[in-house]
Specification:
This protein is α+β, with helices and mostly antiparallel strands and 200 residues long. Helices cover 62% and strands 21% of the residues. A 4-stranded antiparallel β-sheet has the order 1-2-4-3, with helices on one face.
């Protein structure tokens, strides 16, 4: 009977299996290492891209903030300019209103019976000094002023007898409180001729 010793064959086979397992393990480790390296590289590249994108966003935000700051500065300048324009318009309105007011007051004079010696105009009042032949003429003039729509009140502050050019006349002083709206000056119509007394 022939006996075959299988121990060397089994040992070789076991050794071969161990070698294969070690090779598989090493290949697995290498593959895992490659995956880790590739993954790390991808993550690093992605991180760098996100950092760059974040930096770009920060720069863009800074640029927008600077633009917004300039816009606010422009708005402030425009508001300042608008205020200056309004002031100029108000001054222009006052400049135009005073001659208009004086012209309308002149239209209210009782022709041939009175004259002005002084007029003082400010924002709230008009002071009128003048000479007239009698008290009735002063009263007529005050009535015209009150009905003109130019003033809210007309007051006689002084009236006295005096001599001018060898003629006895009345010297009077009036204070008229102005309406604040410029529109009142433009809308008022003063038909002086219709209001003249029927005296010569």
């Amino acid at each position: 009977m022939i006996r075959i010793n299988l121990l060397p064959y089994r040992a070789a086979r076991t050794k071969e299996n161990v070698r294969k397992q070690v090779s598989v393990f090493i290949l697995g480790m290498i593959l895992l290492l490659v995956i880790l390296i590739v993954g790390q590289g991808y993550l690093s590249a992605r991180t760098n891209a996100m950092v760059d994108e974040l930096d770009g966003l920060k720069k863009e935000v800074t640029r927008y903030e600077e633009t917004a700051k300039k816009v606010e500065e422009y708005k402030a300048e425009l508001q300042k300019l608008d205020q200056q324009i309004k002031v100029v318009a108000q001054l222009e309105a006052k400049r135009e209103a005073t001659p208009t007011l004086l012209a309308k007051i002149a239209d209210l004079v009782v022709t041939g019976r009175m004259q002005f010696t002084r007029m003082k105009v400010n924002d709230s009042t008009v002071e009128i000094d003048g000479l007239t032949l009698d008290n009735e003429t002063v009263a007529e003039f005050m009535t015209r002023l009150e009905r003109s729509g130019l003033f809210t009140a007309v007051a006689l502050t002084s009236s006295r007898q005096t001599i001018q050019f060898d003629v006895e006349v009345k010297e009077f002083k009036l204070v008229c409180r102005r309406k604040m709206e410029k529109a009142a000056l433009a809308e008022v119509e003063t038909p002086v001729e219709a209001k003249k007394p029927g005296r010569k």
